[in-house]
Amino acid sequence: MEAQDAGRRAAARTGLKTSTSFVANPVVSPRRQPQLRERRTKRLTGEAAMPSGGKLVQSRCALSARSGRPILLIYAVLFHMQCARSMYIVLISWLALRISGDVGSVGKVLICWQILALTIGPFAGHLIDRSNRRRAFAAGEMIHGSGVAALSVVTWVYGSQPTPLAALYATATFVSLGSLLSYPSSQALLQRAGAAALMRAVSRGILAGQVGNIVGAVIGGLCLAAFSVTACLLMCAGFSFVAAALAGLVDDQDSAPSRSRGVHGRDLARGLSETFGNAQVRIACFGLILAFASAHASNALLAAFTRFDLKSSSETYGFLAAMYSGGGVLGSVALAVFSRRMAERAMVGAGTVLLAVATGGFSSAGTATEALCWQGAIGLSFTFIRAGCDVTILKAVSTGMIGRVRSNIDAAIGLAAIVIYLLPSLLQGFSPRAMFVSLSCAFACCSGLILWLQFCSARAGPPRPGDNRRAIPSSPPVSTRRIEP
Fold first, then answer.
1. String of b and e for 34-52 (b: at least 16 CB within 10 Å)?
2. pLDDT by residue (tens digit) across 13-38?
3. Could you report the per-residue pLDDT of 94-149, keeping only the tens digit for each?
4. How many Cα atoms sit within 13 Å of 161 on the Cβ side?
5. Which end of the chain is less crowded, N or C, counting CB atoms within 10 A of the terminal residue's CB?
6. Please, where are the H alpha helices in 14-67?
């Protein structure tokens, strides 16, 4: 008893609260006592060790207390990144349509934007997992901005003459290389929030990105009517450069991945196994493919739908492209406010059903106002699906594996995008409205498949202990075992 009282007094002098889970024992070797005190301090401050890679993930309290400024910077980075992406899509789609007058040309240009994601995307994810995430993101944004700036120089050189489509193909391929580095790195930076705060962090990150999509699309549509294409492209490149500069201010010292020295082929195989072998990640992968297929359909067909079916101008096209993110903003706000009450499974299921219904309604729109409303509903469903899938993936995948998993999913999304972009060329006799009708039917079938997979996963029950050893722990482990000498 006297030894235990002395241990309690020693623990009180260190500033730690005593409990039955830890009692200082003077019989313990003096060399072990500092290690035991350090272990107890980590438990009280909310730090938990990742099961793989030794990565420390902070709880929500630790994040808000010590990482508030970096997480806000990450939101600002996501805003400027999506500004550049949205504005680039609006500019290059309208430019390709104006040069050739063919709907298929828009799809061909955007196919070049996905080729690298399909071919070298998984390898890029492997390199991201072995690199500093902040530097990888900044490098990707610099590549994206440089490609857009190069296209602006080409349009300036040709002046009033039509810009060759080959220049659009080449720059779109180069720009996509930057996206391969930027997006998986940004997801890895968001993962620092920890499992308890992931829904709120992801919701706010999506909100920042959706606002960026709105700003970029509106600026792109208005600039096309007021300024030259060269000036618009330079402004788009500026957003990428600002995102890279802001990424340099993010303190990611506690999110740097453990640099594995293993065999590259084995690491790639582990990434594929984690992506398609984990049931939760597999369902999230299908959901993201469906959501981004809708976004790519909007990229490929919205310009032609606005010009030929609605008989509207570039300003209307810009507002329609922005309204896709307008509905996403509403969904992001709702998720940020009610993040603790939202279940990822329900969000994905409801979002897929709403996506199919809204796409069918958009295909029947006869006026710009109706199209704006249905476009907002599509954006709302996209946000529900993406938020639910992102949270599921970030909870189920370790920090050292997130680059490979996200790049593999991006490669699958790129394959679906190429199929979407080939539709105008394969279905030349169909109008954009008829293509949207066909896509709504396909989305309904995919929604049924995802709901069935969720039902089968629910019947299978939760995973057994040890089946998902790389998941983020929801709370720090606390031992109730007395420490013996």
1. eeebeebeebeebbbebee
2. 544 444 444 444 445 555 555 565 55
3. 888 888 777 667 777 878 877 777 777 777 776 777 777 788 888 888 999 999 99
4. 7
5. N
6. 33-45, 60-66
How far apart CA 424 and CA 103 sit, in angstroms, is 6
Q: Report the length, in residues, of the chain.
A: 485
CA angle centred on 361, ends 356 and 366, rounded to 5°: 155
Cα separation, 274 vs 412, in Å, equals 14
DSSP 400: G
The whole-number average pLDDT for the span 80-105 is 82
Burial class (CB in 10 A: 0-12, 13-18, 19+), 206: buried
Instruction: Determine the Cα–Cα distance for residues 409 and 411; give it in Å rounded to an integer.
Output: 5
Task: Give the count of beta carbons closer than 10 Å to the beta carbon of residue 343.
Answer: 11
Write the DSSP string, 4-25: HHHHHHHHHHTTPPPBTTB---
The one-letter code for the residue type at 38 is E
Cβ contacts of residue 362 below 8 Å, gap of 6+? 371, 374, 375, 377, 378, 436, 440
Distance CA 362, CA 381 (A): 13
pTM greater than 0.85 (yes/no)? no
